[in-house]
Amino acid sequence: PGRMFFAKTFTDTCCTMTVTAMSANAQLATFSLGSRLAGLSGGAINGLLGGLLGGTVNLSLMDYNALASANVGLFDFAKALSTELGLTGASYTDVLAASANVGNVLNALATVTQNNGNTTASAALKTLRLQSNATSTPITLTKLLNIGPFSSAGVGDPISGPNPQISVMDIVSAAAAIANGGKMVNLNLGASIPGVASLVLS
Questions:
Q1: How many helices (H) and strands (E) does the chain have?
Q2: Is 184 exposed, middle or buried (0-12, 13-18, 19+ CB in 10 A)?
Q3: Residue closest to 115 by CA, chosen among 71, 59, 146, 66
Q4: Which of 24, 38, 97, 123 has the highest local Cβ count within 10 Å?
Q5: How many other C-beta atoms can be found within 10 angstroms of the C-beta atom of residue 110?
Q6: In a 3-state reduction of DSSP, which class is residue 49?
Q7: What are the two backbone dihedrals, phi and then psi, of residue 198, each rounded to the nearest 5 degrees?
Q8: How do residues 49-86 score in pLDDT, each as one tens digit?
Q9: Total-model pTM
């Protein structure tokens, strides 16, 4: 099951987030982007990502809408991540075992979304990398992705079956949560959520 961070603030229901296709699956932690997001102008989410990754994140509501509506293929993302990490002739196991930081994840996502023609999402990912401390925030990739039975396949080799689609926002929030390592984040929300001055996440 995915972990949801202060999701009840945005939605009245919880969920389990799992992407599955042809025995390949990726289980990602996520926080919910519900219908109440429009009233937040991105402020609370900026505070969350800034708290998890460090830095001062100031993405717009349009940026978050672009990230929330964008999807990338699992194998496309893994291939872009391999290129970002400078790996050649690697298997998916090699990619997930490599040393990486959240900045690498954001760059790989930016590459795939750009290739998919989603320039708004790509630009938002690049901005998030620059505004946060993502490039100095290490992440264990095996906690982010699970390629399943295709782990030993070479990156870019033909895969029998579909290419599972994963939400870009889910990957971003999962990467931030995993890299944070369960440390508490104290958010000063100000007027972002009426009646809620601050939240402590752990």
A1: 7, 8
A2: exposed
A3: 71
A4: 24
A5: 24
A6: helix
A7: -155, 160
A8: 888 899 999 999 899 999 999 999 999 999 999 999 99
A9: 0.74
